[in-house]
């Protein structure tokens, strides 16, 4: 490395203004699609026909290491109700507007099966959830993928 303790290329520019650095960080973070779960909690949930609530948490499948559901709190519209929505039903996320847009109607979300954190999520509950939204359940897709990866002729 030579006589210096640190390579010259690793030291940051000393004459860069704080404003320029802040602008660079803002630009880089606006382009990034990676966010922590804490950063998106509180984002507004926008249904196909208007706002319906906010993202209140996540339900994680600890065996598959997958986010199975987002918790939608509708308490601003209907007191105390929380429902689950699959991340597969998210159409887009607006980082600048702090908004998650889902391809479901407000009415469908409002009438969705209530979610209580104190109750375990059973396959019966998931069946009701997917039936209510008229969507195929994730476990059918998993079974199709697993069967397509099995070696033939064995």
Rounded average pLDDT: 80
Class by SSE composition? alpha+beta
Q: How many β-strand stretches?
A: 6
Q: Which outline best applies?
A: globular
Largest sheet: 6 strands, mixed
Instruction: Specify Rg, calculated over alpha carbons.
Output: 22 Å
Q: How many helical stretches?
A: 5
CA(first)-CA(last) distance? 57 Å
Q: For the largest sheet, list the strands in their spatial order.
A: 4-3-2-1-6-5
Short structural summary:
By secondary structure, the chain is α+β, with helices and mostly antiparallel strands.
Report on this model:
With 154 residues, the protein is α+β, with helices and mostly antiparallel strands. It is 30% helix and 24% strand. The chain has five helices and six strands; from the N terminus they run ααββββββααα. The chain has a six-stranded mixed beta sheet. The N and C termini lie far apart (57 Å).
Keyphrases for this structure?
single chain; 154 residues; alpha+beta; six-stranded mixed sheet; 5 helices; globular
């Amino acid at each position: 490395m030579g006589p210096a303790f640190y390579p010259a290329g690793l030291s940051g520019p000393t004459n860069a203004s704080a404003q320029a650095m802040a602008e660079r960080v803002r630009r880089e973070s606006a382009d990034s699609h990676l966010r922590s779960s804490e950063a998106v909690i509180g984002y507004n949930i926008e249904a196909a026909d208007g706002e319906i609530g906010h993202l209140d948490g996540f339900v994680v499948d600890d065996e598959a290491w997958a986010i199975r559901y987002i918790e939608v709190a509708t308490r601003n519209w209907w007191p105390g109700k929380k429902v689950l929505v699959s991340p597969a039903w998210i159409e887009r996320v607006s980082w600048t507007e702090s908004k998650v847009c889902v391809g479901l109607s407000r009415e469908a979300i409002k009438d969705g099966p209530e979610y209580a954190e104190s109750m375990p999520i059973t396959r019966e509950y998931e069946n009701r959830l997917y039936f209510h939204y008229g969507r195929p359940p994730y476990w059918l897709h998993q079974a199709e993928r697993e069967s397509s990866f099995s070696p033939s002729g064995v």
